[in-house]
């Protein structure tokens, strides 16, 4: 079983897996928040979705309220905000935890992966990004302040798109 086979819940309450959501696509999994200084990254994430959805990649948002309570809404409110403010079309998960004892199993595994500086451990803040291959391998951990349109992000996506 890979990371992509772990059970997860969509924001509409449907239980699924990352594999069922993305099929054989590359995944950019991002913990998100609606009331954060980094919230405008939603626009960049949607731009990536628009650019790469037909080329073998999907963004998946994972709303989380663990960082200063910056995602207080219900799953429905979060979805409405994302659609109205940023025209988000990529899948959103049900609100979950990314750190600590209550961390979702996917994030317990993801936080074992080191970033470019060789640091693993807790998610630092909202909008930390993990690029996951179709085989379930974490290709890259990208810290929160790195914008979705950063050349590093684009190059990593381009280098890992399915053939």
Q: How does this model look, in words?
A:
This protein is an alpha+beta fold. The protein has a single domain, classed as 3-Layer(aba) Sandwich (Glutaredoxin). A 4-stranded mixed β-sheet has the order 4-3-5-6, covered by helices on one side. A two-stranded antiparallel ribbon has the order 1-2. Strand 5 and strand 6 form a beta hairpin. The chain is globular and about 40 Å long. The two termini are 23 Å apart. The model has no long low-confidence stretch (mean pLDDT 96). Keywords: Oxidoreductase, Peroxidase.
Features:
single chain, 6 strands, 163 residues, 28% helix, two-stranded antiparallel ribbon, 4-stranded mixed β-sheet, 18% strand
Question: What is the topological layout?
Answer:
Blueprint: E1 7-9, E2 15-17, H1 18-22, E3 26-32, H2 41-52, E4 57-63, H3 75-86, H4 105-110, E5 129-132, E6 138-142, H5 151-160
Parallel strand pairs: 3-4
Antiparallel strand pairs: 1-2, 3-5, 5-6
Instruction: Going across the biggest sheet, name each strand in turn.
Output: 4-3-5-6
What gap, in angstroms, lies between the N and C termini? 23 Å
- Can you identify the CATH class? Alpha Beta
Describe the oligomeric state of these chains in a short phrase: single chain
| Low-confidence segments | none
According to DSSP, the number of beta strands is 6
Q: Given the structure, what is the number of helices?
A: 5
Approximate helicity band: 25-40%
The CATH homologous superfamily: Glutaredoxin
What's the pLDDT, averaged over the residues?
96
Question: Any idea what the CATH architecture is?
Answer: 3-Layer(aba) Sandwich
CATH fold descriptor: Glutaredoxin
Structural class: alpha+beta
* Count of discrete domains: 1
Q: What is the rounded Rg?
A: 14 Å
